[in-house]
Amino acid sequence: MNAFLDAAIAEAEQGLAEGGIPIGAVLVHRGIVIGRGHNRRVQRGSAVLHGEMDALERAGRRPASVYRDSIMVNTLSPCAMCIGAILLYGIPHVIVGENQTFVGEEDWLRARGVRVEVVQDARCVALMKRFIATHPQVWNEDIGI
Any catalytic annotation for residue 57? Predict the structure, then answer.
């Protein structure tokens, strides 16, 4: 899974380089990345383009069986909106890079039978801590504060 987290981190770094929020995600089906994305709310002026949503969008239209046999790998704990999409498509496994800077609705996922692994990757923590310290208003907007 380390290579997939590395890919999600690369997405987060790309988002930061574009002037956005450094959160990345990859959707993995049977060991192959089929969708990768990063938070592009700032870049696109979007209300909903979080990393997970971008990865799903870039994966394109897939049969339900593909989602039900996939893993979502995120650099940060997913928010309620992204969890809703994960549940809607029946993604059974989520790997979270870190949840020290933000704890999403992980318990909601677990209660619905989704396997959630939080790895507390130091790179993910550092990316978010730096961003939150330097861009608190953008971060607060992203999480609805």
Answer: no
What's the CA gap between 2 and 117, in Å, rounded? 13
pTM value > 0.90: yes
Phi and psi of 118, rounded to 5°? -110, 120
Residue 70 token pair: 């996939």
pLDDT tens, per residue, the chain with 145 residues: 689 999 999 999 999 999 999 999 999 999 999 999 999 999 999 989 999 999 999 999 999 999 999 999 999 999 999 999 999 999 999 999 999 999 999 999 999 999 999 999 999 999 999 999 999 989 888 777 7
Sign of CA dihedral 89, 93, 98, 104: positive
Q: Which two tokens stand for residue 10?
A: 């690369």
Q: By C-alpha distance, which of 35, 36, 39 is closest to 48? A: 39
Beta bridge partner(s), residue 105: none
DSSP three-state, residue 35? strand
**Consecutive H or E run containing 106:** helix 106-111
Catalytic annotation, pick one of 52, 98, 106, 141: 52
Helix (H) or strand (E) holding 70: strand 70-74
